[in-house]
Amino acid sequence: MKGSIGKIMQQAQAMQGKMQEAQKELAQMEITGEAGAGLVKVVMTGKHEVKKVNIDPSVLEEDPEFLEDLVAAAINDAVQHVETASKEKMSEMTGGMDLPEGMNFPF
């Protein structure tokens, strides 16, 4: 019995190490979201930190509210891409097992 518990503990430690490595990889990823057919682009890390915002100069001639909407949409697009990348990474780690609803990986 002790041997099987030890084996389970080793597997859990190995999984924890893999998850920490996946978290590091995701944190270093830079993912781009965009809106308005590329008029506004947002580069975000896997930790949801915005690194760069690129705004096409033609948008600056528009109504400020239009630009605000495009920036918000580009950020939301980047967040969706980060979430997708996180789920894909977790799926790789768990061999395709889905996490229970409400459990987000890794952030």
TrEMBL record:
Which InterPro entries does this UniProt record tie to the protein? YbaB-like_sf (IPR036894), YbaB/EbfC (IPR004401)
Please provide one cellular component term from the Gene Ontology annotations of this protein. bacterial nucleoid
| Keyword set includes tRNA processing | no
A single GO molecular function term of this UniProt record: DNA binding
Short name of one Pfam family? YbaB_DNA_bd
List, alphabetically, the NCBIfam families matched: DNA_YbaB_EbfC (TIGR00103)
Q: State the function annotated in the UniProt record.
A: Binds to DNA and alters its conformation. May be involved in regulation of gene expression, nucleoid organization and DNA protection.
How is this protein named in the record?
Nucleoid-associated protein C41B8_15992
UniProt organism field: Salinisphaera hydrothermalis (strain C41B8)
Its lineage reads: Bacteria, Pseudomonadati, Pseudomonadota, Gammaproteobacteria, Salinisphaerales
